[in-house]
Amino acid sequence: MPKKILIVDDDPDFVEAVAMILKSKKYDVVIARDGNEGLEKVKTDRPDLIVLDVMMPEKDGYAVCKELKADPRWNRIPVLLLTGVVSHIPTTRYTQQMGMETEADDYLDKPVEPEILVKRVEGLLSK
Amino acid sequence: MALSNGKGLFESSIILVIDDDQTMRDGCSRILSKSGWEVIAAENGQKGLDEIRARGEIDVVLLDLMMPGVSGMEVLERSLEMDPNLLVVVITGYATVESAVEAMKKGAYDFVPKPFTPDQLRIVVKRALERKTLQKEADFLRRERERSLRDISTEKSKIRTIINSMGDGVLVCDQDGIVVLTNPAANRMLELSEDDLLGKSLSKANLPPELTSTIRESLTMRESAYTSVSQELSLGTCKEVYLRAHTAPVRTDVGEIMGAVTVFQDISHLKELDKMKSDFIAMVAHELRAPIAAVEQQLNVILSKMAGEVSENQERLLSRAKERTQGLLTLIKDLLDLSKIEAGMMVQYKGPLALQEVIQKVVDLMKGEAESKGIDLQFSSMPQTPLICADRSSMEGIFTNLVSNAIKYTPAKGRIRITLGEEHGQVRATVQDTGIGISKEDLPRIFDKFYRVKSAETQQIIGTGLGLSIVKSIVDAHLGSVSVESEAGKGTTFILSFPKEATPLGAEKAKE
Fold first, then answer.
1. Could A87 and B333 be called an inter-chain contact, meaning their C-beta atoms sit closer than 8 Å?
2. Do B296 and A92 touch (CB under 8 A)?
3. Residues in chain B within 8 Å Cβ distance of A110
4. In angstroms, what separates the C-alpha of B287 from chain A's closest C-alpha?
5. What's the pLDDT band for B504 if we cut at 50, 70, 90?
6. Which of B89, B169, B343, B386 could cross-link with B186 by S-S, CB 3.0 to 4.6 Å?
7. Per the domain annotation, does A81 fall within a domain?
8. What is the pLDDT of residues B65-81, one digit of tens each?
C-alpha cells in the first residue's frame, strides 16, 4: 500500500512539479490549493505526510502547521515545510518573531532538488 | 540732544545773545569769543527764537528781558518749550529783581544784572556751560545705559525668536538635570507642553526613557572631548513618530559640564519613505521569486528525469537554464536581505550567542556541497570561546555566505578551513580557502554593493555582487569588523571579529 502525501501549495505549477517527483517514487499524492483546503484534506484523506508551503494567502503554512500540531488527531503526521523566504536556515527569524517554535518536522527551501526532497520524505516516513 | 546733533561733549559751545542793543550784542560777543566760545547774536526776540529753532544746538542763551516786539519773557517761555534743556541766562536792566525772579520761576537758569563786568558775564556763562556739560554727560550716560540694556534684551529676544522659529526641536537641561529651555518644535515633537517640561527634573518630565538616560549620561560624561550622542526615538500615541535626537553636553571654558542640549529632528517621513522603499523591494522580490522558483522546480523535475528521458543536448541547455534561475534567486534573496538590513530588521534580535554552534550548523549544511566538489571543509574552534551579542540568523547568513563563496571559488581538491577563537579580547573567526584568490586591484572593492570580480575564472560562476556587502552591513551592525587577505591563485582568508558578550560564558544555558 503506497504512502499518501498531501501537497498544500497555492502555485499550481509548483504543485505539479512536486507531485511529479513524488509520483515517480510511487507515492499517492493529494493536492490542496490553500491552507483551509489543506486542513480539510487532512481530515478526509488521512495523509501519511504533508508537504506544506509557507507563503499562502489567507491561512499560511505556519498557521496550518500550528493547527495540526495542536490537534491530537493529526499531530503525529509529519510536516515538511517548504519555505521561500530565507535561504538555508528559514526557521530562526520566524521563531523569534512569533515568540514560538514552529513544530514542523523538517524544512526545505523552494525550489527543491528532487533527490533531496525524496530523501527527506523517506526519512520522515521511516521515523 | 546735542549728541543727537552729532556734536561731542567737549566741542566748542554755542552761545546765543538776544538783545536789541547793538553795543550789548557786540560787547557780549567780544567777551565770550575771547573765552573760546562761539557766539551768535540776534537783535530781537523773534530772530532769537528763529536761531534756536534753526540751529537746535545752542548751549546757552543770553536773553535781554527788556526788548521791543516779542518780549524777553515770551522768548524765554517759547524757547524752553522748544528745548526744555536750554540754559537761559536773563539780562535784567536796572537791577529789577522782580523780573529776574519771575524769569527764574519760568525756567531761566540764571540772571546777570546790568551793568556787569566782562568777568561777571564770563563767570555766569561758564557756570551755565558747566551745568550744560554735566547735563550732557548725565544724558549721555543715561542713553548709553539704556542702549546697552536694550541691546541685551533685543539680543536675548533675538536668540529666543531664532530658537522658537527653528524647525528642529531644542531642549536644554542644566547640570542638575532640570529642563531650562524648550522650543515649540520640541514641544510639538515630544507632544509635551512647555509647562510639562520647563523647570521639571528629568525624572518628572515624561520624556522618553531612553532619551532621559542619554541626557543623564551626557551630564556625567567625563572626557573633556566633544561628545555627542545620536539616537532614534519612536513615540506616538495616535500615529507613529520617529525622532532623531542629538544630545551633547555644554561645557564651560574649563571643561566643566553646565548642562546638555538635545536637538530633535522629525524623521517620520524619512522612515516612511524608507519603509516604502523596503516594502517595495520586498514586494517585487517576492513577486519575482515565486515564478522563478516554480520554473526552477520544473527544470529540476525534468533534469532529474522524473518526467521522462532527456537527451544530452537538452540536459546541457536545461542545466544552464537552471544555473541562470539559481543566479536570479540568489540575487532576489540578497535584495531581500539588503532591504531587511536597511530596514533594520535583520539584526534586531541580538542576544548572547555561541558562534561555535552557528558555524557548526552552517558547516554541516554546506558539507554536502563541498564534498560534491571534492573540497575538504573543516571547522575547528578553540574550547571555551566567549559568547558574542548577535542576531543568530544574521550570523548564520554571514557564514553561509562566506563558506558558499569559498566553495564557489575553490577548485576541486581544494581546502577550506574555518577557525574560531579569542584574540585581543575579541571573538575572531576566519574562513580560509585555497581558491582562485582576489587580485590586489579588486581587493579594496569587494565589499561594495554589486561589485563582482571579472575574470576568466569567475565568468562561469553565478553571483550577484551583493553577498559581501551584506556580510559587511551585518558585521557593522554588530560593531564588529571584517577584513580580507588574499593572493591571486593561492587563496583567500576572511577575518571577522566581534566584541565579546558582557555576560559570562554559559549564561544563556542558565537562563534556559
1. yes
2. no
3. 293, 297
4. 11
5. very low
6. B169
7. yes
8. 888 888 888 888 888 88
CB B411 within 8 A of CB B489: no
Could A17 and B294 be called an inter-chain contact, meaning their C-beta atoms sit closer than 8 Å?
yes
The verdict on a CB contact (< 8 Å) between B306 and A24 is: yes
Asked if B343 reaches chain A (Cβ–Cβ under 8 Å), the answer is: no
Cβ–Cβ contact B365 with A under 8 A: yes
Q: What is the pTM of this model?
A: 0.46
Distance of CA B491 to the CA centre of its chain: 47
Which of B12-16, B26-30, B309-313 is predicted least confidently?
B12-16
**What SS3 class is residue B296?**
helix
pLDDT tens string A15-57: 999 999 999 999 999 999 999 999 999 999 999 999 998 878 7
Secondary structure (H, E, C), B222-291: CCCCCCCEEEEEEECCCCCEEEEEEEEEEECCCCCEEEEEEEEEECHHHHHHHHHHHHHHHHHHHHHHHH
Same domain, B24 and B81: yes
* Domain extent at residue B174: 169-266
Verify that B177 and B95 share a domain, yes or no: no
Which are the contacts of B480, defined by CB distance < 8 A and separation ≥ 6?
B388, B426, B496, B497, B498, B499
Q: Is the ipTM of this complex over 0.85?
A: no
A87–B392 C-beta distance less than 8 A: no
Distance from CA of A18 to the nearest CA of B (A): 8
Q: Are residues B413 and B275 in the same domain?
A: no
Task: Write the CATH number for A33.
Answer: 3.40.50.2300
Structural domain for A80, as ranges: 4-112
B5 domain-assigned: no
- Burial B161-199, CB ≥16 within 10 A → b, else e: eebeeeeebbbbbeeebbbebbbebbbebbebeeebbee
Domain count, chain B: 4
pLDDT per residue over B432-449, tens digit each? 999 888 887 877 777 776
